From TrEMBL:
InterPro entries: GalU_uridylyltTrfase_bac/arc, NTP_transferase_dom, Nucleotide-diphossugar_trans
Pfam family, one: NTP_transferase
Lineage: Bacteria, Bacillati, Actinomycetota, Actinomycetes, Kitasatosporales
Catalyses which reaction(s): alpha-D-glucose 1-phosphate + UTP + H(+) = UDP-alpha-D-glucose + diphosphate
Descriptive protein name: UTP--glucose-1-phosphate uridylyltransferase
Gene this chain is encoded by: galU
Keywords for the protein's UniProt record, in alphabetical order: Nucleotidyltransferase, Transferase
Chain ranges of the Nucleotidyl transferase domain: 13-279
Organism annotation: Streptomyces kanamyceticus
NCBIfam families associated with the record: galU
SUPFAM superfamilies cross-referenced by the UniProt entry: Nucleotide-diphospho-sugar transferases
EC code(s) of this entry: 2.7.7.9
GO molecular function: UTP:glucose-1-phosphate uridylyltransferase activity
UniProt similarity note: Belongs to the UDPGP type 2 family.
Gene Ontology biological process: UDP-alpha-D-glucose metabolic process
Length: 304
């Protein structure tokens, strides 16, 4: 008897590209990966892995490179530290140290030369195989109270193909992002069909103010397209260019849909956004928030 497969298999694998050079954050990122910069008291990358796990994806492949060893160490055990905390009876901190290594099944592959996000995603091909998978950018933080990935997984299960995350931005800012031309769908206000994509367009040429943000659920046919994708803007192999080809020809890998995100998102690779993320998340923390907010209020009223 032949085994029957559901039309759209359940997604279990998350790919987290974290091999970029992080030049916007130099010199902090000279010897430390930008994904390890703390947002309050947790490195940015831990929020991203937690987000994947809470959307049901507990097989995580991180794309790393030179200088990225701390990423692997963070999700590994640290017996020395654990036994020191155990000896002290400091169970609360022990739990914090053990938490990252218990989160998910972690895998790593090195990108070699950082030839762009498309190239980083292509490095995941042998691990992913022929199933749909999620991509979460390692420096893009989605507030855990505004879930996005689970909705994207649901839309992918309904339509097949690929799903990208979109956010409406000020039209003058669209040149900083990949941009999508879209059509409405019957799935609700937050779901659109993507008909075209362009990387970092001039505002005058942009087809919309829908910017691509760092979450994707991709059909595995994207790998074949990426293998044939020539370096684009900035001499890098652009994921947007490969997705543009999928959107233009549904026969290649099914349709491309977009989920429009209206929640809180921080690009921790950008210094301003990084500071905003810390202030916001610190203010909302039960342990730190009350004191920090009181200080912030007096700082704003008395010193600004
Ligand atoms: P960015 O363009 O934000 O990362 O890439 P970057 O190149 O590190 O940053 P700057 O502009 O120099 O400051 C988005 C995501 O893609 C990963 C990055 O690590 C980041 O998570 N990336 C980018 C790779 O993994 N490999 C690459 O070749 C490029």
């Amino acid at each position: 008897m032949t085994e029957s497969h559901p039309p759209h298999p359940r997604i279990t694998k998350a790919v987290i590209p974290a091999a970029g050079l992080g030049t916007r954050f130099l010199p902090a990122t000279k010897a430390t990966p930008k994904e390890m910069l703390p947002v309050v008291d947790k490195p940015a990358i831990q929020y991203v892995v937690e987000e994947a796990v809470s959307a049901g994806l507990d097989d995580v492949l991180m794309i790393t490179g030179r200088n990225k060893r701390p990423l692997e160490d963070h999700f590994d055990r640290n017996y020395e530290l654990e036994s020191a905390l155990l000896k002290k009876g400091d169970e609360a901190r022990l739990a914090k140290v053990q938490e990252p290594s218990d989160l998910a099944t972690m895998h790593y592959v090195r990108q070699g030369d950082p030839k762009g996000l498309g190239h980083a995603v292509l490095c995941a091909a042998p691990h992913v195989g022929h199933e749909p998978f999620a991509v979460l950018l390692g420096d893009d933080l989605i507030d855990p109270r505004d879930p996005l990935l689970a909705r994207m997984v649901e839309i992918q299960a309904r339509h097949g193909g690929s799903v990208i995350a979109l956010m409406e931005v000020d039209p003058q800012q669209i040149h900083l992002y990949g941009c999508a031309a879209v059509e409405a769908t019957a799935d609700g206000d937050d779901v659109v069909k993507v008909t075209d994509l362009v990387e970092k367009p001039d505002p005058a040429d942009a087809p919309s103010n829908y910017a691509i943000i760092g979450r994707y659920v991709l059909d595995p046919n994207v790998f074949d397209v990426l293998r044939k994708t020539e370096p684009g803007r900035g001499g890098e192999i652009q994921l947007t260019d490969a997705l543009q080809q999928l959107a233009a020809d549904e026969k290649v890998g099914g349709p491309v849909h977009g989920v429009v995100f209206k929640g809180r998102r921080y690009d921790t690779g950008d210094r301003g956004d990084y500071l905003r993320a810390i202030v916001r998340l610190a203010c909302e923390r039960e342990d730190l928030g009350p004191d920090f907010q009181a200080w912030l209020r007096s700082y704003v009223t008395e010193e600004m």
